[in-house]
Design brief:
Blueprint (H helix, E strand, L loop, with lengths): L5 E10 L6 E12 L2 H15 L5 E3 L6
Antiparallel strand pairs: 1-2, 1-3
Length: 64
Amino acid sequence: MHQVVAQTIHLSIGYSKQTGGGFSRQKKMGRASNLSQDIFSYCLTILHTHDSGIPIRSIPPFPF
């Protein structure tokens, strides 16, 4: 089994149907990692930077 690591984190957020739209952004980590806490931290950074406080409808899963 291979150790899969990521260096670029991509987050997509869809807003409610009443509001429409959403955003999709990516951020490169300083080093490649497969640790959940590293990836989650970068996801939170993206969310807090680009979220406008509108109710979130969906966070699409990553296709593995």
